[in-house]
What we know:
Helix content is 64%, strand content 7%. It is mainly α. It has a single domain, classed as Arc Repressor Mutant, subunit A, CATH 1.10.10. A hairpin with a 7-residue loop joins strand 1 (90-94) and strand 2 (102-106).
Amino acid sequence: MARDPVLTPTMAASVEQSCLSFTAQKAARAIGRRYDASLRPTGLSNWQFTLLMMLVREEPPTISALAQHLATDRTTITANLKPLERRGLVNVQGDAEDRRVRRVVLSDEGRALLTEAYPLWQEAQEALARQLGKVDQDAFRAAVATLTS
Length: 149
């Protein structure tokens, strides 16, 4: 029978230094805070901005397609769409061919707000890119894509 390990501060430090999950969560929070601060004048969070940008498509996406594209579940997408719908930024409507399928349409108000938010996002994007400097950002995105595909 295996013995339970004796937990030590050295073990905890090792987890903190080597854990990919901890590192990714820490980076996500730090990056998210930067975008949130930049987008604050629009009243959008970083997540809301991203969700709205995913609606700028030739054909309005389904809730399922949004969930898959954003690596989350339908329930999370539905919950996050409600405040955007209340603000008049999106409309959730049945598909023309299959009323059971729900499509998310960016409203004119949503498009106008994204037009206002985009330059703020660009500034945050450029500031983060400058701070990262020599870090290979394409390699970073490729690594994330490997994990989310």
